[in-house]
Amino acid sequence: MRWQITRSEFLAERLNWRSLNSDPPFCGTDGNNNIVPIAFAIVEGETSDTWYFFRSNLRQHVVTRDGVGLISDRHESINAAVERSNGAFHMFCIRHIESNFLRKFKAPYLQKLVVNIGYSRTVREYEVRYQRLRDRDEAYTNWLNQIPREQYALAFDGGYRWGHMTTNLVECINSVLKGARNLPITVLAKATFYRINELFTRKRAEAEVRIDAGHVFSEIVTSKLHTNQLASGNIQVSCFDRQNEVFEVREMPSGLEFAVDLRSLRCDCGEFQVDQIPL
Asked: Which domain of life is it from (predicted)?
């Protein structure tokens, strides 16, 4: 089944083939945060060559444009395959980094801090949490420094994550394919095709209902825009550069101030860069 990906982010679970059984390795999310399976493959094992084979075909037939974000664990076979190919911005699942950290240092009391560093939406937020970890022991931050921060922190990901930090979403598609993985290959392929077709058909019908009702955006985006509109009654806006669309926004009663650059689509709060939904 071929499906042209329209949102610049997809998730990769490690290949876990046992006797040529299949799991859904690549999934994406649509504009309503629905989980969308993108591609499947049956290979002999989890190696750099099989990942490269899979990603090359994915690039040629499905994800045909640059600027797509790939979230995976830090397995060497995936990293090696990504280095041999191009067209995707590779990032790591924060839960896998958390697990690697715990395995290295046996410090469960710092797990949440490591995860929060990854979830930091602004550089300032990142620096405060990073320093807090460093104050505990420089060995912790020295280990973290071996991972490029754009590959695990929201504040530096360039918007490629669309707010997603883990590969957990991939597991949600398991219910769609329940019972199909242990079938013979021909039957497995047929079962996968029809079950995914049913999912796509249902989601398409749901989208058409919203369009026919006059909605411009997806349900989740519409809800967030409504929430932001209600919250806008508690802010003060000062214009600094009308021509270049630069403003200062002050939240009340907290008094927090943020610079908003509409032309560059940036806000000091970091929310827009992560979610890419107008505030």
From this structure: Eukaryota
The arithmetic mean of pLDDT across residues 139-165, rounded, is 92
The C-alpha atoms of residue 34 and residue 50 are separated, in whole angstroms, by 28
Tally the domains of the chain: 3
What pLDDT score was predicted for residue 127? 97
**178/233 same-domain check:** no
Residue 3 is predicted with a pLDDT of: 39
Q: Is 99 part of any domain?
A: no
219-247 residue pLDDT tens? 988 998 888 888 888 888 899 888 888 99
Average pLDDT over residues 258-269: 86
CB 173 within 8 A of CB 22: no
Q: What is the pLDDT of residue 21?
A: 40
Domain with 247 in it: 220-275
- Say if residue 70 is in the same domain as residue 27: yes
d(C-alpha 146, C-alpha 151), whole Å = 11
The reply to whether 186 and 87 lie within a common domain is yes
Is residue 98 included in any domain, yes or no?
A: no
269 shares its domain with 131: no
| This prediction's pTM | 0.75
Among candidate residues 147, 137, 65, 63, the one with its CA nearest the CA of residue 100: 147
Strands (E), 132-217: none
Q: What is the mean pLDDT of residues 95-117?
A: 96
Q: Quick one: three-class SS letters along 31-72?
A: CCCCEEEEECCCCCCCCHHHHHHHHHHHHHHCCCCCCEEEEE
Strand 68-72 vs strand 9-12: parallel, antiparallel, or unpaired?
A: parallel
**Residue 165: CB atoms within 10 Å:** 20
What b/e readout covers 88-119, taking b as 16+ CB neighbours within 10 angstroms? bbbbbbbbbbbebbeeebeeeebeebbbbbbb
> What does the block give as tokens for 74?
């830090």
